[in-house]
Structure to design on (310 residues):
């Protein structure tokens, strides 16, 4: 079996037609590090090449499916010095949108390997599938959730745009707008009610429900599965999914570098990521334009010289 640092993949010993791709950073709720997107693509390629495998189950080790990008590293820890710029959070001015786009577009394509694989993919979600974790889950063909699990993209409130654009294609425009305008999470029960999740069951039944669905699919010939998946994917392609992803990926970079995005980052650096998230998700108005610039400048002084700010 291939060896990875952020995940693992192997065939279910009892069900060799089912491959299990496990996100394996449980100490960080399987948060996405720099290696995980590419390793997902490599793991999918391994399953794609195995003729015994008919279906791929994607799951998270521990308490959550995936808590999104590792924001403590991206938002909080990177110092305020141009020579250590992270391509996704550049400190120099003007920032290079195409450097940011190149990185995020590659991540999006990595996640979309789950969608493009000729073999059906099933996301099994417990705990949380939020931020970039929701991208991973929604790039899978089918979604099975625990009733009390939560899925959402809270960074739409500030500092993010879901680059896979899957919310619209999975929910339709009206409900996708509600999710993206509010940043609210959906429980597994609500996700199933809205048609986002195929199945929602009590947490104790999640494994059994996912296995039953995977086994049912695994009995179908690989060629038939590939044809049916291609037909549905072609409809989404004709509807413009690639164009939507290009726009969303550009906008994602802008949200991290416009005045509101810079304020959010400075808030995370000055008082910790949890402080920034609490403000973002509380419903309090998020600073905009000149107010965001003013607050970001004050926070930057505190970061550069903590004695000034308290």
């Amino acid at each position: 079996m291939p060896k990875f640092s952020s995940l693992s993949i192997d065939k279910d010993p009892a069900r060799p037609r089912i491959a299990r791709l496990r996100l394996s950073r449980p100490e960080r709720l399987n948060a996405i590090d720099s290696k995980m997107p590419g390793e997902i693509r490599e793991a999918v390629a391994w399953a794609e090449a195995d003729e015994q495998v008919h279906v791929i189950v994607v799951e998270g080790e521990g308490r959550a499916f995936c808590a999104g990008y590792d924001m403590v590293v991206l938002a909080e820890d990177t110092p305020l010095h141009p020579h250590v710029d992270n391509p996704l959070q550049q400190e120099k001015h003007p920032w290079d949108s195409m450097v940011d786009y190149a990185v995020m577009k590659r991540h999006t394509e990595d996640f979309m390997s789950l969608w493009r694989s000729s073999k059906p993919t099933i996301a099994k979600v417990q705990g949380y599938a939020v931020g970039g974790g929701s991208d991973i889950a929604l790039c899978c063909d089918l979604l099975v959730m625990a009733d009390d699990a939560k899925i959402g993209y809270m960074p739409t409130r500030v500092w993010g745009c879901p680059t896979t654009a899957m919310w619209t294609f999975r929910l339709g425009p009206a409900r996708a707008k509600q999710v993206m305008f509010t940043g609210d999470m959906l429980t597994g029960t609500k996700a199933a009610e809205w048609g986002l999740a195929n199945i929602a069951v009590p947490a104790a039944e999640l494994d059994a429900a996912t296995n039953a669905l995977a086994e049912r699919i695994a009995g179908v010939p690989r060629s038939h599965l590939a044809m049916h998946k291609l037909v549905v994917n072609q409809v989404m392609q004709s509807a413009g999914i690639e164009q939507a992803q290009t726009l969303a990926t550009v906008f994602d970079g802008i949200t991290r570098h416009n005045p509101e995005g810079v304020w959010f980052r400075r808030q995370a650096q000055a008082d910790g990521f949890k402080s920034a998230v609490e403000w973002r998700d509380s419903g309090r108005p998020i600073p905009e334009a000149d107010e965001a610039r003013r607050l970001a400048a004050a926070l930057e002084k505190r970061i550069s010289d903590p004695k000034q700010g308290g």
Notes: Strands lie at 7-12, 15-23, 55-60, 121-125, 128-130, 142-146, 150-152, 186-187, 199-201.
